[in-house]
Amino acid sequence: MTGRVNFLPLHVANQIAAGEVVERPASVVKELLENALDAGADRIEVEVAGGGRDRIEVSDNGSGMSRDDALMSVERHATSKIEAAGDIARIATLGFRGEALAAISSVSRFRLVSCSRERTVGTAITIAGGKIEEVSDTGAPAGTAVQVSDLFYNLPARRKFMRAKTTELSHVRTVFLWYALAYPGCSLALKIDGREGYRLAGGASLADRVRELYGSDIMTDLASLDWQDGDLRISGYISSSPLSSAGRAEQYVFINSRPASAPLVSYALREACSLPDSSRRPLVFLFVGLPFDQVDVNVHPTKREVRFKRPAVVRDGLIAAIREALAKKQAPGLPAAPGRPAGRVGETDAPVAPPPAAWRLDRVMPAAGYTGGGQSGPPSPDAGDAGNLAAHNRNPGKQGPWIWFRLLGRVGERYALIETDGGLVTLDQRAAHERVLYERLVSSEFSAPDCSQTLLMPVTVKMSPADAHNLRRHLPRLNDLGFSINDFGDDSFMVDALPEPLVDAPCRELLVSLSEGLATGAGKTGEAPHGWRHTIARAASRLAISARRRLSLDELRRLVEDLATCRMPYVCPHGRPTMVFTSLRELDRKFGRG
Ligand code: ADP
Ligand code: MG
User: By alpha-carbon position, which residue is closest to atom 16 of ligand 1?
Assistant: First the structure.
């Protein structure tokens, strides 16, 4: 300390300021993409090497800059986007702070080549750690290309804070996707270590782009938002089915085409979808449009968080728009029913059919045939004798939850009623099936190659970019365990074999569930707490018979038998109970006979 107050040298001041704008490679990609979009580009190429830690390059066909403008652009507080304080109140561009290029060039080796449309000679500027090294004329196409190498090379402390290449890359991808969704009209490409990651055609609609990124299947699930009230316009898509709303789902929110987060939007989403908590989230691509002076984007240096002038209006608009979209999706052609909790996302909305006559016990029980244990043996001679104890299924191991059981039938869509030696059991079929699947998958045969069953027809599945990224990271693990899943590129995967217990699982749902399970299964150290086999089995077991499929009585009986042989028959792998037991003694007590 000198004890005297001095101005900081400019490049030091810039480095300090850079801390706010440039956090990691993805922030560089974000700022450069925003600049290209603000310059009116309709073709942008992004290239990264080493997760962006080694090199980032963004080139565009936008307006380009004259030599003077290019030199100005790398100065702090130099911007062409606003001129006076009043302009801050109505920002129509993605950038306005005039900080990004100054900040980025002060913490990297930086090269900018730009040529405005009216000229043929461009300008190249080379900067290292904030110091201009060279300015020269150069031949260049109209537009701008910025190359950022060795990010934080001059700030070892910051460099240390960058994560592994794959982590940084996944942040870069995320940024790329946000802008790809926000600007479907712009052709965008992402190259990763020399390989093509994405190449998205320009001139597209939002629907086109969503289809291109997520596969066309996804559209059948999406409800389209199209709502307007005065100045406020809400558009985009929201998922309506349980699959995409289960667990973590991507929520893309754009305010005036700016990727944004606002707590108010999350609140409105939960409210409109009647979601009990934040653990179930619908997939959304939500665009909120309103006059520029109605939204304050100057809240945070990264411009990610926004504030609304009239939050209540926006909130109510969002809720109305989402409810209307979901109601229309459920009952096309009908006006939205007021008061109805529109679209309980996460519930199946299929009408509940009355149980078919075949489920009446007198007709079904004999036909279903007790086989007296044994999974696929022929019906035993006393199969029809439902009242006879000898016909009851015996639990061979005697370790299970009952000594014998008799299937009585089912209650509603989900539950089976079982009489046992100890009383009455109400079984949650799905939870029970999850338990059985899980235990089969964690058992030692699971990884044996001969448990892998080749599918008759390989299935190709297009995944969401985030899910694809996750799955890709864990492919070797999955393939070790009897899956055969191949990366087709472009976020598509081909499945040609599955572990035997899963051969009937719908591949798309299976892959989504695996990717989500693997993402959350990995602990802080990157290892799953109970090993990958358990994580994978738990995720896969979600694909147990769903509410959609009704088991035959025969299948149900086999399920009860299988459950009885499980090590932990009482809970599903996700911790929910598989059965509720009412003992005879409890019944006696309730009837006043105890
Ligand atoms: P801001 O975007 O907040 O204005 P930047 O530091 O990101 O600040 O950019 C400074 C200025 O440089 C911009 O206002 C713009 O005039 C110019 N500029 C930056 N990138 C480009 C580009 N890709 N094409 C044309 N002009 C650009
Ligand atoms: Mg900018």
Answer: 80
What secondary structure does DSSP assign to 133-163, as a single string?
Answer: EEEEEEE--SEEEEEEESTTTT-HHHHHH--
Mean pLDDT value of segment 62-75? 94
Nearest ligand by distance to the CA of 116:
1
State how far the alpha carbon of 388 is from the alpha carbons of 16, 370, 371, 373, in Å.
84, 11, 13, 15
Does 106 sit in the ligand 1 pocket, CB within 6 Å? no
Chain segment 399-410, per-residue pLDDT in tens: 678 888 899 988
CB 157 within 8 A of CB 34: no
- What six digits make up the tokens of 341? 């909790």
Token look-up 């029809």 returns 384
CA of 29 to the centre of ligand 2 (A): 11
Proportion of the chain above pLDDT 90, given as a percent: 37
Is the CB of residue 245 below 6 angstroms from any atom belonging to ligand 1? no
pLDDT tens figures, 14-33 = 777 777 788 899 999 999 99
Using a 6 Å cutoff on CB, does residue 57 contact ligand 1? no
From CA 29, how far away is CA 128, in angstroms rounded?
18
**Which single residue is written with the structure tokens 């899963």?**
502
Extract the tokens encoding 412: 């509603």
